[in-house]
Design brief:
about 325 residues, alpha/beta, D-Maltodextrin-Binding Protein, domain 2, 5-stranded mixed sheet, 16 helices, SsuA/THI5, NMT1/THI5, signal, ABC transporter substrate-binding protein
Length: about 325
């Protein structure tokens, strides 16, 4: 083989390898979810699939979480660079000394809900005392039960809480082992599908309907990362929020991208979960200020609400637990 031809082949081969391999100069970033991947998480997965992170010089690693409290600890202790967790977990984590801060809001509206079996005899919220409620110990929605009770005018101490792991809640409800469960409304499609298969009818009580309005799912980062590498925070948020915007504008295609990565998932369920996510994400605040926006007054009210059922180990002010200095301006309404 002639030297010139061999050289040409080598150059083409090296170019192909370079194109297929992430740039060595790309920043490696770990992103912990709050739970197993589902419709709520289309934003980061679409951003990964569409190359938004790569465009921003980021080599992303997204992995499942084990609850908001665990994700907050991971980010606070350096086990993950970024995470998705419930705002209450971030606020409580900060009060316990974890150096974490919210940098974008995903769910601007409270997503807490109680789902119940209609054949259990529960017809109104007044029927909950004396009934059983499946919940994971320490979960955000369970912690808000006292506030829910105040708004609903019921004594929640008379509700019999049955502690269980998060994966056991829906099967326990459908089997009738408990009369009700507390969870996020983004789980509703999964609950309704399981109920339909079992021939059961399900009802729900939204906490927001009883005066519990708070910030819910958020994106957080470690304070040290924010201080030492603010440009990276900007690039990660830009890619992630563009992922949510693209999924908003192209929901069917977004679900297809998710299904390619998780072929065992139900596209119908993921689509329904994302539809609920958008309803909780695109609020009047988001329409006025853009996706991910965090309002100081609403954050102060959220802190007060969380403080009503837990004792903070140190004073918590809005500026302690959030910043929107690195948030891109992406309109809430798309095409």
């Amino acid at each position: 083989m002639k030297p010139i031809k061999l050289l040409s082949i080598l150059i083409i081969g090296l170019a192909s390898m370079a194109a297929a391999t992430p740039s060595s100069s790309a920043d490696k970033v770990s992103f912990a979810l709050n739970w197993v991947p589902y419709g709520l998480h289309l934003g980061p997965y679409v951003a990964e699939a569409k190359g938004f992170y790569e465009e921003n010089g980021i080599e992303i690693e997204i992995f499942r979480g084990f609850g908001s409290g665990d994700t907050t600890k991971r980010v606070g202790t350096g086990g993950a660079d970024f995470g998705m967790a419930d705002a209450s977990s971030v606020i409580i984590g900060y009060s316990k000394g974890l150096p974490v801060k919210m940098v974008a809001m995903v769910l601007d509206k409270s997503s807490d809900a109680i789902y119940y079996l209609k054949d259990s005899g529960i017809e109104s919220v007044k029927d909950l005392p004396g009934r059983t409620l499946g919940a994971a110990a320490g979960e955000a929605s369970l912690n808000l039960m006292s506030a829910f009770g105040q708004g609903a005018g019921i004594d929640v101490s008379k509700i019999k809480v049955v502690n269980m792991t998060p994966p056991a809640k829906i099967p326990s409800l459908i089997a009738g082992s408990v009369d009700s469960i507390v969870t996020f409304v983004t789980e509703e499609p999964t609950i309704l599908e399981a109920a339909k298969a079992a021939g059961k009818s399900i009802g729900k009580f939204m906490f927001a309907d009883f005066g519990v309005d708070r910030y819910a799912m958020t994106i957080l980062a470690n304070d040290s990362l924010i201080e030492t590498n603010p440009d990276l925070v900007k690039r990660v948020l830009d890619a992630t929020m563009r992922g949510y915007a693209w999924a908003r504008d192209n929901p069917a295609e977004a679900v297809e991208l998710f299904a390619k990565k998780f072929p065992e998932s139900s596209s119908e369920l993921v689509a329904s979960q994302f539809e609920i996510t958008l309803d909780l994400m695109i609020t009047d605040l988001a329409k006025a200020h853009g996706l991910g926006y965090i309002d100081e007054e609403k954050m102060a009210k959220t802190i007060d609400l969380i403080g009503s059922f837990t004792t903070f180990e140190k004073d918590v002010k809005p500026e302690d637990v959030y910043t929107i200095s690195y948030l891109p301006k992406i309109p809430a309404s798309g095409k």
